[in-house]
Specification:
8 helices, six-stranded mixed sheet
Length: about 325
């Protein structure tokens, strides 16, 4: 008995030493078709991330068959290259539509509760995690300590989202739903609590779909203008330190910047999407009045680099692919 107690205490001590006092390298991405053979995982592992964040379309399920969904998750998880990432750093995440189970789906998808269980199983979410006590998959995590703490807030943009309005304009898939909501009241209240009493130095808000970019006609927060404005007002009201949005879904990578009255720095939305596939045409040009840097169509993942050596954290975005160098010039936040 004494020996077992000693082993338990030793494990706790070793685990404590394994936890970094600050996180400096975060990788994230989305849109990974488990049936496609070209994998981004070796390029990600080379970057030595301390955290990987899934932003949705972690598999391509599009099904009401939970047996099939589990099989697809298991296929993704069993990939030896993905297993190498699991041995490199913690993995957390949320979902988008294809892994949710319905393309562009919202709150009326009939299997969302069952699908939630398959996602949590894939992510190895512990049985006592708070995400299991409420509907949807929204969740938050903290990393680092003291003045070097980062809070990651992962939103669920599917379980509570109202119906999108199909457009009659052939150049657009959807028109804005002026009365529709994105998150649902319970999740809104939870999000407000997450930012109103946080002592983190950086807040990374994971949204499966783009928040700032508003010119294209596909899925985005702009399809629910009241929700987009509500989010902006909450950020302006509570002023969480250094809020950053990360998003996926679009099969492109880009960085958008939006000035918000009440926030001391601009709000950034770093989109990284297309781990296994991106736009077929390399000549497409999509307008985004908020874009800084280039529109990147190559397969990609995002890197957030944090330098804690100064009085305030220095944050740099890198859009990365298989090549040694980033796919566009790194962007250091104001």
């Amino acid at each position: 008995m004494k020996k077992s107690l000693f082993c338990i205490l030793l494990c706790f001590i070793l685990a404590a030493y394994d936890q970094p006092t600050s996180v400096t390298r975060i990788a994230f991405g989305s849109c990974s078709d488990e049936d496609l053979t070209e994998r981004m995982w070796p390029a990600i592992v080379v970057q030595k991330p301390q955290l990987w964040i899934w932003l949705g379309d972690n598999i391509y399920g599009d099904t009401h068959d939970m047996g099939l969904l589990r099989k697809q998750y298991d296929q993704q998880k069993a990939d030896p290259q993905y297993q190498a990432l699991l041995k490199t750093c913690p993995v957390i995440g949320t979902w988008d539509d294809h892994d949710y189970g319905q393309n562009d789906g919202g709150k009326f998808y009939a299997k969302k509760n069952e699908s939630k269980e398959e996602l949590l199983r894939f992510l190895d979410v512990p049985a006592n995690n708070p995400v299991r006590t409420h509907a949807g998959v929204y969740n938050s995590y903290s990393y680092g300590t003291g003045a070097k703490k980062i809070k990651v807030i992962l939103l669920d943009t599917r379980s509570f989202r109202d119906t999108v309005l199909h457009s009659q304009d052939p150049a657009r898939r959807y028109d804005p739903n002026p009365e529709g909501d994105m998150l649902g009241e319970e999740q809104w209240n939870w999000f407000e609590q997450q930012i109103s009493n946080s002592d983190a130095a950086i807040h990374i808000i994971g949204s499966s779909i783009q928040f700032i970019s508003n010119d294209h006609g596909y899925e985005k927060w702009g399809n629910f203008p009241r929700s987009r404005e509500r989010m902006i007002k909450l950020l302006a009201k509570y002023k969480p330190a250094r809020p950053i949005i990360i998003s996926g879904d679009r099969h492109i990578a880009e960085v958008s910047k939006l000035a918000i009255n009440g926030l001391p720095q601009p709000l950034y939305d770093f989109t990284s999407s297309g781990l296994t596939h991106t736009w077929a045409s390399k000549d497409m040009i999509e307008k985004n009045q908020y874009r800084i840097g280039q529109l990147v169509i190559e397969k990609n993942f995002g890197m957030i680099l944090i330098d804690w050596s100064g009085a305030s954290p220095k944050i740099t975005f890198e859009i990365r692919g298989h090549a040694k160098d980033p796919l566009d010039a790194p962007i250091t936040l104001e």
